[in-house]
């Protein structure tokens, strides 16, 4: 099964990020937007794993969660990867909660490597993906909208609690990915 580990966002954050997507959609750019219900913060993409590895991941997440307290996450900025001249991913960055998220990601990465899952090639970046750019259609309008929306995001950041780590199964379909929660480990209060 194809799987990943993530931090969930509350419904209110999904609604607010949908509003942000709507602002950016007005640019008319060719972007595959993440479905609001699927918006999350990925700690580690696992790829295809078997049931035994999934069980081992579950045990590892329980240990990691038991050693980490709940925390508050606050959005900070809006940006693109890899760079504005060639945007591929549109994201929302994290201010408050960044160090806690990085710590969780490092622990998850370490546990995954011990299970034989390849290490990430790029350093972890705390972000929430909003969409993926498919072509350069209306790219200048999109970049202008991102600049304007980034100021809005910085002025009115979203704040929400992070209370668990979740293992998801991801099934690809013509309509987009379908995520199924397999397991969640609560962080300490």
CATH H level, superfamily name: Cyclic phosphodiesterase
Question: How is the main sheet built?
Answer: 5 strands, antiparallel
Strands in their spatial order, largest beta sheet? 2-6-5-4-7
How many domains? The number is 1
Description of the structure:
The chain is 34% helix and 35% strand. The protein has helices at residues 11-25, 51-66, 98-114, 139-155, and strands at 2-7, 31-33, 41-48, 71-83, 86-94, 127-133, 159-162, 164-171, 178-186. Helix 2 packs antiparallel against helix 3 (98-114). With 189 residues, it is an alpha+beta fold. The protein has a single domain (2-186), classed as Alpha-Beta Complex (Cyclic Phosphodiesterase, Chain: A), CATH 3.90.1140. The strands form two sheets. A five-stranded antiparallel beta sheet has the order 2-6-5-4-7. Strands 3-1-8-9 form a four-stranded antiparallel beta sheet. The chain is built from four helices and nine strands. The model has no long low-confidence stretch (mean pLDDT 94). A hairpin with a 6-residue loop joins strand 8 (164-171) and strand 9 (178-186). The longest helix is centred in the middle third of the chain and has 17 residues, at 98-114.
